[in-house]
Amino acid sequence: MNNFYYLDALCLRYVVPFKFNELFEDACKKIENQKQQKFKKDKQTGKKIPSGDQKLWVRRCVTQAAPESDLYEYIRDEFRFVDNENEAKEQKSGCEWLFWRSRESAEKDGQSIKDLIYFPDMNKQDDGKLPESWKVKISNAGIMLFRNGLGMLWYEIGFHQKNIRINSDELKVFQNYIRELNHGKTASIWEETDENAQFGLILKEVNNHKTVISPFSFGKWVNDMVDFLDIHYMAERKSAYKSLLKNGSKYAEKLQYRIISGEDKPDADVVSDIKVADKAILFTYASFEKDNFKDSREDRISLSYHLTNGYNDSYHYGSDVVDEMRHPFDDVIWYATQEGVSYLAWPSEDNRKTFKEQLLKKAGSDYFTLYMKALYQSFSLLLYAEKIQSGISAVKMHLSESDTNVNLLYNEINLFLTKSMATSVSHIHHQSEFYIYIKKRLRIDEDVDSVTAGLNAMDGLQREMREEEEKESSDKIQFIMGIFTLFGIFSALVDSCELFNMFSQDGSWHNLGNNAKTAEVIIMVVIVALAVCIVFGIFREYIKTRRKDRKK
């Protein structure tokens, strides 16, 4: 990109999807039971003293008290607890909680969830001093659980300094680094910690109090937030936290600061043995200042492409990307991929306030809610596809054994489609169009067709197999009935012989009359013919059955 733009408004959120391997009700109880001790400052001594327990995850958010949403109520409150209910109602497909210190939490205490330091040029300094840094914070975080075993953790990052002008090039570098949760080589994000850290730089020491910073791993932090649940991330890999500390230590040796070394502490080795999330999915809302230079359409498309995916300038977009983007207004671009979604605006001066204030609030509430709903649909369909692959036999002769499982899965997917696939979501047409565009870019309708087509085919196959089983059962019944019929024929033959013997004087054949002899011979021939036909029919059905079994 030849030109860059200065930011006027920004909302950056990140989503980490996972699967939990326990009952939905049990997982919800675990979230509700997470607590930590609260402290308050003593007015006389100035020291912090315990003040009771605080739930880590709360149900109520600030926007519920004074909603400013254009979404339909059933969409906005789809996963929220309402009316102080003790448990999630059966009508709800999932539930959501906010971390208690979130900016939107009704329980917030004015502190950030995490205060961090970002060094854009951490590995480029060679003068022995720390490079220029930005103060960033995790200001919001939430967790969502769904009855089908899907979960999503999300968090929001903001910038502390309001006097710093961040441009679009710097934002691209930031997003490219932040989306990777499991860094092992480059330590660009640090946090203030204490002298018990695995490793750290002592920036200053006053009255025996040390100000220490150490490398921060988003992968480890995300894992710490949800480690009370039995989960697997959708994209995960072995933790690189130990490598991050080692590389941070190598870099720190070049700086003019005292170092705390934690080589003898075992915690890093323990962390390195676990699996952590690999990447985060990006949600980006940004409004840029209109500068004097004349920017081009290509500049805006390039920026949308890189910010949406978290790519750096080494990635170049193809011609099809231009057609994939949506321009709802002349100065707005929407773009969505599997990596993330972006809503970027270059407003003119007369509507700058709208994008800087009103739409910024809507981005964090309405537009993000719609994006999470679309992600829920997309990852749920992925889970169902996995269940079909792992829960249904690939051997046709064994399909009938899993008939119950298939029916349960079929009903579960149909219930999900019935409750979750709304297309009209807002009083504002613009928001409904945004939601429909995201669903199209995530290929949700294609995934629905793929999953349901497979189950419909499976249902047809099972119907066919049931018909075959019923026919085989009918053939067996006919075989048994044929045998009984044969016995009946022989019984009739014996009875007929006895009948004709009654007409003879001494019960012998030569004393019968000619007419009686003829009648008895005819009856015997007919009975023998019927018996031969029945035996032949049974034998023919037996041969057909054996041939079908061989074909299978």
From TrEMBL:
Domain of life: Bacteria
Chain segments annotated as transmembrane: 521-543
Record keywords: Membrane, Transmembrane, Transmembrane helix
Protein name per Swiss-Prot or TrEMBL: Uncharacterized protein
Source organism of the structure: Lachnospira hominis
